[in-house]
Amino acid sequence: MDTPRLALTGTAHHEAGHAVIALALGGTVRAIRLTRVGGDWRGDIGLRFPDDPQVVPDLVVAMLAGAHAERHWHELHRPRRAHYPYDIDAGTAWDRDQAHELLAALPRHQRPAHHELDARAARLVVAHWARVEHLAARLIQHKQPSA
Questions:
Q1: What are phi and psi of 69, to 5 degrees?
Q2: Residue 12: its pLDDT value, please?
Q3: What is the tens place of the pLDDT at every residue in 106-146?
Q4: Residue 54: CB partners within 8 Å, gap ≥ 6?
Q5: Which domain of life does the protein's organism represent (predicted)?
Q6: CA distance linking residue 112 with residue 50, whole number of Å
Q7: Residue 90's pLDDT is what?
Q8: What is the spatial distance between Cα 137 and Cα 82, in angstroms, rounded to a whole number?
C-alpha cells in the first residue's frame, strides 16, 4: 500500500474509532469528513453528547478512542515506517488537548482520572473493533475513485 492510501486508512480508522465509541456510549455523530491535504489526510468529526456534566467522561472517552483505533490498526497491519511516516501521538494532540480541557472544566471532586478514561477508550476500541473496521472501510471506499 502506498503512503497516501496508508494515510487515508489510518485516518479513517482514527475517525471511525471516535464515531463507534461515541455511539456505543450514547452519543451521536453529526458528520465525518476526511480531507486530502497534499499527500496526507485530515479527519474531522462532529460528535454530540447531551449537555450534562455527567456525560463529559463519555465524551472524553470517545475523543481518546480515535488514537487508540489508529494505533490498533497500526499494530495489526504493521505498515513499514517508510510508507507510514506519521507520529500517531503527535497527530492526536488536538484530541488530547480537548479532552484535558473538558476534564479541567469539571469540579475536582467529579473529575475522573485521565489515565482511567484513556484505558477505557483502549478497551472499548478492541471490544468494538469489528464495527470500527466496518466504518473505516466505508469511509475509505467513499474517498476512493470508482474502478
A1: -65, -45
A2: 96
A3: 999 999 999 999 999 999 999 999 999 999 999 999 986 54
A4: none
A5: Bacteria
A6: 18
A7: 76
A8: 23
Spatial CA neighbour of 3 closest among 93, 73, 92, 80: 80
Band (pLDDT 50/70/90 cuts) for residue 147 is very low
The CB-side HSE value for 114 (13 A sphere, CA atoms) comes to 12
Burial class of residue 90 in the structure, from the number of CB atoms within 10 Å of its CB (0-12 exposed, 13-18 middle, 19+ buried): exposed
Q: Average pLDDT of 17-36? A: 97
Residue ranges covered by each domain of the chain:
3-141
For residue 59 the three cell numbers come to 465524551
Scanning the structure block, which residue is given the C-alpha cell 497491519?
77
DSSP one-letter string for 19-66: HHHHHHTT-EEEEEEEEEETTEEEEEEEEE--S-GGGHHHHHHHHHHH
